[in-house]
Amino acid sequence: MTYELNVAHLYGDLMNTYGDIGNILALNYYAKQMDVHLNVKVISLEETFHAADYDLAFFGGGQDFEQTIVAQDIQTKKAELIKFIESGGPLLAICGGFQLLGHYYIGADGEKLPGIGALDHYTLAQDHNRFIGNIVIKNQETGETYHGFENHQGRTFIGKGERPLGDVVKGKGNNGEDGTEGAIYKNVYCSYFHGPILTRNGDIAKHLLVAALKRKFPDDDFSQQEALPIPATF
Ligand SMILES: NC(=O)CC[C@H](N)C(=O)O
């Protein structure tokens, strides 16, 4: 393979609800077609995340119990994660991962867990209810439609500098109120979609990989990779 990218799978052993690890398999599938080899490393509790060592990161969803543990540990990685994000590092964060990149998450039992505040959203609890079901959204900038399955109790409200990943066509989205789903900030893509998201929405995998390639190899031309057709089903 011509290119190599280093991928950090953040808390891959703890944050993996509904087969979110399938996102790593899907990334590999698309990377191969782009002539890219991925070196994937799980970075978990008490392990160091050095922003400069990685070209792409993935942070999956989790249950409240795992999130209480991760919410503490991730504070030790906060500065380097913010460095990675602010320098344009591509990162995909799903559900619990999405919540912990923001200011805080209030769990089903009312416990307030700190996030790292790298992105300007916050997540409230809801009373004895979860948003569960198939969801469809549309990204207004690209015109792309994304399909997924949501299952979350948290209600997220996005903030300064964040655009939604899409507008809700069907389903609940971030909070069931404002019609937004997910968030985009710089090269960070957040969503409540399981499914996993990248197996059903190859366009997002392509955006992440192309962003990582352009950032790591600024002198090369990736128009061919950008033009890669995305199969209807993975
Ligand atoms: N699937 C998930 O990652 C769920 C995240 C969080 N525990 C919630 O219920 O909102």
From TrEMBL:
<dbReference type="InterPro" id="IPR033949">
    <property type="entry name" value="CobQ_GATase1"/>
</dbReference>
<keyword id="KW-0573">Peptidoglycan synthesis</keyword>
<dbReference type="GO" id="GO:0008360">
    <property type="term" value="P:regulation of cell shape"/>
</dbReference>
<keyword id="KW-0378">Hydrolase</keyword>
<keyword id="KW-0808">Transferase</keyword>
<keyword id="KW-0133">Cell shape</keyword>
<keyword id="KW-0961">Cell wall biogenesis/degradation</keyword>
<feature type="binding site">
    <location>
        <position position="130"/>
    </location>
    <ligand>
        <name>substrate</name>
    </ligand>
</feature>
<comment type="subunit">
    <text>Forms a heterodimer with MurT.</text>
</comment>
<comment type="pathway">
    <text>Cell wall biogenesis; peptidoglycan biosynthesis.</text>
</comment>
<comment type="similarity">
    <text>Belongs to the CobB/CobQ family. GatD subfamily.</text>
</comment>
<dbReference type="GO" id="GO:0009236">
    <property type="term" value="P:cobalamin biosynthetic process"/>
</dbReference>
<dbReference type="GO" id="GO:0004359">
    <property type="term" value="F:glutaminase activity"/>
</dbReference>
<dbReference type="Pfam" id="PF07685">
    <property type="entry name" value="GATase_3"/>
</dbReference>
<dbReference type="GO" id="GO:0140282">
    <property type="term" value="F:carbon-nitrogen ligase activity on lipid II"/>
</dbReference>
<dbReference type="GO" id="GO:0009252">
    <property type="term" value="P:peptidoglycan biosynthetic process"/>
</dbReference>
<feature type="active site">
    <location>
        <position position="194"/>
    </location>
</feature>
<dbReference type="InterPro" id="IPR029062">
    <property type="entry name" value="Class_I_gatase-like"/>
</dbReference>
<dbReference type="GO" id="GO:0016740">
    <property type="term" value="F:transferase activity"/>
</dbReference>
<keyword id="KW-0315">Glutamine amidotransferase</keyword>
<comment type="function">
    <text>The lipid II isoglutaminyl synthase complex catalyzes the formation of alpha-D-isoglutamine in the cell wall lipid II stem peptide. The GatD subunit catalyzes the hydrolysis of glutamine to glutamate and ammonia. The resulting ammonia molecule is channeled to the active site of MurT.</text>
</comment>
<protein>
    <recommendedName>
        <fullName>Lipid II isoglutaminyl synthase (glutamine-hydrolyzing) subunit GatD</fullName>
        <ecNumber>6.3.5.13</ecNumber>
        <ecNumber>3.5.1.2</ecNumber>
    </recommendedName>
</protein>
<dbReference type="InterPro" id="IPR043702">
    <property type="entry name" value="Lipid_II_synth_GatD"/>
</dbReference>
<feature type="domain" description="CobB/CobQ-like glutamine amidotransferase">
    <location>
        <begin position="6"/>
        <end position="201"/>
    </location>
</feature>
<dbReference type="GO" id="GO:0071555">
    <property type="term" value="P:cell wall organization"/>
</dbReference>
<keyword id="KW-0436">Ligase</keyword>
<feature type="active site" description="Nucleophile">
    <location>
        <position position="95"/>
    </location>
</feature>
<dbReference type="InterPro" id="IPR011698">
    <property type="entry name" value="GATase_3"/>
</dbReference>
